[in-house]
Amino acid sequence: MKASLATKADLGQGPSPMCRALLAAMIGLVVLVSTNETARGESVNVSQEIANLQAQTDQLSKEIETLKRQVAGMEQMSKLIIRIPLPAPFHTDAAAIQISGIATAWVKVPTTSGPGLDITPIINFDLKNIGTTPITSINLMVSFYKPDKEVIGGGTLDLLDSNDAPLGTGMRQKVTLDYHSVGFPETRSAFALNADLYLQTDPGSYVLIDTCQISPSVEP
Question: Which one of 3, 5, 187, 210 has the fewest beta carbons within 10 angstroms of its own beta carbon?
């Protein structure tokens, strides 16, 4: 009876030292395994980051090479542009231009707003070089306006440039200013109209060389 009570008392004192040691060893093993798994996962993440950085570096290298080629192309283009000669400034002496034989009228043209025909002014004249040297540039501008000075149309006409043969001294050229080179509002009837003719003497400069009245007659 005493022995049996002693055994129960011993059991009431908890696990033996050996059991406690075994339990501690098992807990340590679980912690070690968990630590190894975490380290392995972190190692995989670091490897992935390194791979991503390498891919980004490769992409940046390709973009840098592309930019280098573009810069080289632009430098080559700039060299070509520098070699292109700029157009020489021109000057046309207004005193060397003579206007004669001016004839005006209205002509019928297809309308753009429906059936029927509109009419627009037309100016024909002769232009003569009365100067002492050939003329290499002739740019004209016409301005149409009513008797009250209201401008209602106009346009420009490049008669002669560096690609054409010069107009020699004493030579004439027939000129027509019509709806092909003149902007004019749509109208079905003729009315009182004047026109100023300007000659471009220098880039950005025009000189009035003649004024005329548009005939009220409409050509068939």
Answer: 3
